[in-house]
Task: structure prediction
Amino acid sequence: MAGLMTFEALKSAVAAGTVDTVLVCMVDMQGRLQGKRFVAQHFVDSAWEETHCCNYLLATDIAMATPDGYAATSWQAGYGDYMLKPDLGTIRPMPWLEGTVMVLCDVMDHHGHQEIAHSPRAMLKRQIARVEALGLTPIMATELEFFLFARSFKQIAASGFRDLEPISDYNEDYNILQTSREEHVMRPLRNHLYAAGIPVENSKGEAEAGQEELNIRYAPALDTADHHTIAKHAAKEIADQHGHAASFLPKWHHDRVGSSSHVHQSLWKDGANAFFDPDAEFGMSALMRQYMAGLIRYA
Result:
């Protein structure tokens, strides 16, 4: 796994001419990547310190409209800027895009004094800090389920989003024959993500026509969230490169099986899983039982 790049390695790649574009990205309220494409030389010269974006990016709906009701920003109050502060520990190649790397950013106020409290990355970092204050480390993993369609998003939109046709025509759960027909999308998705430092374990068919599942190895919670967001983005881009649409909608058709996102959760202490107790019923430690009770009560 090629994995993450250091800033020094990026500068060397830019000098060698193998990297010419840097995607500088934040994660929006819908879990999508938003940002800018930088000329790589400009990024390593100066933009690695900061860039800016309109603060409406954390106040839009899924269609990028700006509905009323947000206290942070509005047409009435006027739209300002946020600072995007690149997290240089997240630089990674984007192998499905020629000469391109990506870096994730923390979203700061315009003066760079503090993170924007309602940005998804900041919210997660606060919760991680609370857990770590208890001497525990949150370790997570996700399984992403999604549908591949026979046509591209552009073609589907031109049809008024009607008569959607999945890439296959029968339940392909664990089916090797049918998923072989989809390897022109799924093989580059697995391998490109792995080369980008996303610890993909496998993919498989799921329990509906055209439904896929991508499994990513567990990691610290912030890394898992980054992996999850990048994997969804890659699935859409790579599918589009091959003339298909990928959709993570939980239910795209009332007669079809839905797609879920399994989030595996555990708390670790001193390098071991604190949820496991070999002497307890079902192997569930007292901490795990308390954690589960909290999820049932408050989630």
